[in-house]
């Protein structure tokens, strides 16, 4: 579904005009201020949709196809520097794999393990022991940084590589054919979330009750479907219901 389709009325803006304004087409698309406000609400809805679908990332990695395939980043390893600042951390939703080069000349990467600084096994890391240097074998994510353990004793250009899920692609107020980047069968939830936000801002109790009922229905369908998706590409199997003949 496109963002704003004034030709066939099959866009998120037109769905909002049908739902909220009784098919008064142009009420939003033809009003620059209203269009800007609904663009903000739709972008907030994209974030909310992404969080909902990420609940099932173990079954099938979710992502916005507007941002490309695998999202990867690289940073330099600097000898004696444990904390590596991430480029544009505001674009990262979460990191799910980190790899490093083990020396300055290799081109190969080796995956390292995550750890939690609150774990007692990280005592040497916490104390920042000057002897705790070498080839990192684990990492922790802290804010806009990846912290390595032990502290690397070598430098490597693009020595750290990470795979991550990017935040959703945001709509622009002037967009027309831009899409949400989620499976088309789930696109309804995007404008429903936006309408829910509008109902809250407008203190419209009747609209709030109506849209929350529709949100509950669509969320239930999404959760049921996502729970059946398999990381190993196995088709869901239907099991017959056995009833007693007694």
Task: Itemize the secondary structure elements and their pairings.
Elements lengths: L11 H10 L10 H23 L16 E7 L5 E3 L6 E9 L9 E5 L8 H5 L5 E2 L3 E5 L2 E5 L1 E2 L3 E11 L21 H14 L3 H24 L18
Return residue spans where pLDDT drops below 50 for at least 5 consecutive residues. Answer: none
**Binned strand content:** 15-25%
What structural category arises from helix and sheet content? alpha+beta
Radius of gyration: 24 Å
Number of strands: 9
DSSP summary: helix tally: 5
Account of the 3D structure:
The protein has 246 residues and is an alpha+beta fold. It has two domains: 12-60 and 171-228, no CATH class; 65-166, no CATH class. It is 31% helix and 20% strand. It is built from five helices and nine strands, in the order ααββββαβββββαα. α4 (188-201) runs antiparallel to α5. The radius of gyration is 24 Å and the shape is elongated. The termini are far apart.
């Amino acid at each position: 579904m496109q963002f704003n389709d004034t030709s066939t009325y099959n866009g998120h803006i037109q769905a909002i005009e049908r739902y909220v304004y009784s098919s008064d087409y142009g009420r939003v698309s033809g009003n620059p201020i209203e269009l800007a406000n609904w663009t903000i609400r739709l972008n907030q809805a994209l974030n909310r949709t992404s969080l909902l679908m990420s609940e099932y990332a173990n079954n099938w990695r979710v992502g916005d196809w507007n941002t490309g395939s695998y999202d990867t980043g690289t940073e330099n390893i600097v000898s004696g520097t444990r904390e590596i600042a991430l480029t544009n951390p505001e674009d990262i939703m979460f990191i799910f794999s980190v790899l490093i080069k083990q020396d300055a000349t290799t081109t190969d990467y080796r995956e390292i393990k995550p750890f939690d600084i609150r774990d007692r096994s990280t005592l040497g890391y916490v104390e920042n022991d000057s002897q705790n240097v070498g080839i990192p074998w684990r990492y922790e994510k802290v804010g806009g940084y990846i912290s390595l353990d032990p502290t690397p004793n070598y430098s490597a250009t693009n020595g750290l590589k990470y795979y991550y899920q990017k935040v959703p692609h945001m709509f622009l107020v002037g967009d027309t054919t831009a899409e949400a980047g989620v499976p088309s069968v789930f696109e309804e939830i995007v404008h429903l979330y936006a309408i829910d936000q509008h109902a809250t801002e407008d203190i419209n109790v009747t609209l709030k009750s109506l849209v929350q009922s529709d949100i509950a229905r669509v969320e239930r369908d999404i959760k049921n479907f996502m729970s059946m998706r398999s990381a190993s590409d196995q088709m869901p199997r239907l099991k017959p219901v056995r009833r007693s003949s007694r």
